[in-house]
Design a protein that fits this description.
Helix content is about 50%, strand content about 15%. It has about 210 residues and is α/β, with parallel strands linked by helices. It has a domain of about 150 residues: Rossmann fold. It has a five-stranded parallel sheet, with helices on both faces. A hairpin with a 6-residue loop joins strand 5 and strand 6. Bound molecules: adenosine monophosphate. The site of adenosine monophosphate (AMP) has 17 residues, from helix 2 and helix 3.
Length: about 210
């Protein structure tokens, strides 16, 4: 099963993707994570992407598509993939279909997590994560046991440089412009499932599972 997860920053895509990865045989492929890793390693791609990411702007399609094609070649997605944060534009959606078709694969369902913007702002600006294991915390709704430290490995928690109110506004603006076109594309193909993303992670996950199993 190959799935696409659509949703703005703070919609819970990453959290839900990790659960699906554990319960279904799918490999989570997050372009945000791949790009952050390229930035960390200081690759050519990372150097081009870093200033755009810092401002909450989209990295150009050709770079992101190249990254996804390379990731698909790794050979571990035969059982299924879960695309998180990709595609974000119509050309990316088309490129994904072509890349999968070359492997004899296709997208089965596209899950769009719907969350009102005021909730996104609260979720994103209170978000801290562990740079070692990726666990995500929230100052109010999911605080770590020891302030500023990961429960799992004790690493000092960090806040993403694009999780400030100003950067988030830019990211939401980009999302509002591009994602309706991507959703429309998948709606026409009969693959789009819109899920209410408001509620606890367990509640949202139950809705996603019900949609996948229907
Ligand atoms: P995310 O972790 O998905 O919120 O992505 C963080 C940042 O990486 C975004 O604000 C963009 O700058 C960049 N990015 C991630 N995925 C894509 C994509 N599919 N297309 C273009 N830029 C992306």
């Amino acid at each position: 099963m190959n799935l696409v997860f659509l949703g703005p920053a703070g919609s819970g895509k990453g959290t839900q993707a990790k659960r699906l990865e554990a319960d279904y045989r799918v490999v989570q492929i997050s372009t945000g994570d791949l790009l952050r890793e390229a930035v960390r390693q200081g690759t050519e791609l990372g150097k081009k992407a870093e200033p755009l990411m810092r401002e909450g702007r989209l990295v150009p399609d050709d770079l992101v598509i190249g990254l996804i094609e390379e990731r698909l070649r790794a050979g571990d997605v035969g059982e299924g993939a879960l695309f998180d944060g990709f595609p974000r534009t119509l050309p990316q959606a088309q490129a994904l279909e072509e890349a999968l078709a070359r492997m004899g694969l296709q997208i089965d369902k596209v899950i769009s997590l719907e969350v009102p913007e005021e909730i996104l702002v609260d979720r994103v600006t209170g978000r801290w994560s562990c740079p070692t294991c990726g666990t995500v915390y929230h100052v109010r709704t999911r605080p770590p046991r020891v302030e500023g430290r990961c429960d799992r490995d004790g690493t000092e928690l960090v806040q993403r440089s694009d999780d400030t109110p100003e950067k988030l506004e830019k990211r939401l603006e980009v999302f509002r412009t591009e994602i309706p076109k991507v959703k429309e594309h998948y709606r026409k193909l009969g693959k789009l499932v819109e899920i209410d993303g408001v509620g606890s992670p367990d509640e949202v996950y139950a809705r996603i599972r019900a949609a996948l199993e229907s």
